[in-house]
Input
Amino acid sequence: MRALLIVCALAPFAAAEPAPAAAPAIDAGYAAAILYGSAAPPATCTGSDAIPCLLTARYAKDAKARTAALALYADTGDVAGVGAEEIMDGGYRGKIHLVPALPIGDYRVHLAWTLAAMRAIDAFFAAQFPAAIGAPAYRWRALAFHFVRSVGKRTPSAYATSWAVTYNVSGSLLTSVDGVLETLFHELFHDNDEAHRDWSARTLATDYAAILTRCGEHPTMKCLAPYAPGPTVVRGGTYYAFQPNNGDGVHEYAAELAVRYFDEQRAMQRAGKLTAAAFKCGPAENARAWAALVDEFFGGRDLVPACPPSL
Ligand SMILES: [Zn+2]
Output
């Protein structure tokens, strides 16, 4: 039944794409840095079991968190540790003080949600790209998680660079397993966008700027709504994809677009239909951005049926 609904909108990716099994792994030295920062890791953790040994030692105070951290590494190759203390320039959010926050005790739930989210993302890609289809030009495994806490603020929820995600245990979006799943998919896209040589800025900037120009200097939600890939709204601001003073906004538009891909493809996998209009069937800018994203990152694979012809 599901197979009948599959629509391959674009050409399949080249057979030369690396398989997910060939994805890079985190080595023991990097794992020690994720877990211990600049402090010395236990000297006894060496050899082929060095990373499980380091995880076991670092999470020694919390057996449930230790089990989750080991499961995360075993299932996805991800290593969950801490971020460094920093004063971050958060753009429209102002300056933010971040401190390390190992996800144990009261923060353990964040590790559990991360484990559930990364397992769900892994399952999504397995279903979307079975062996007969081949792997997409996308990485979702062997990631570093840096857990931090923001002092006196609840933003940003997370940020990403260099195959790492910094996760704020006080983040306003990170209060449920669903919120964590969507946020981590968003962040994961930033890592992939970066690895694709800032694809979003190179590819989507013209249409993105044209949308903002069309909606004026102080755009209304109503004007932006047809173009917003996701419903996330900044308190006192606008759609996250179009929020001013938030780095290069096209990066956020693209990450929200990737989340929309994740949501729509999962709905097709589960139910064979969408409960709302497909993003690509909106304005022409949406269709162009969608096709470009699917082609660049997801092997041209789009389970959403083609849009009905416009009258
Ligand atoms: Zn983002």
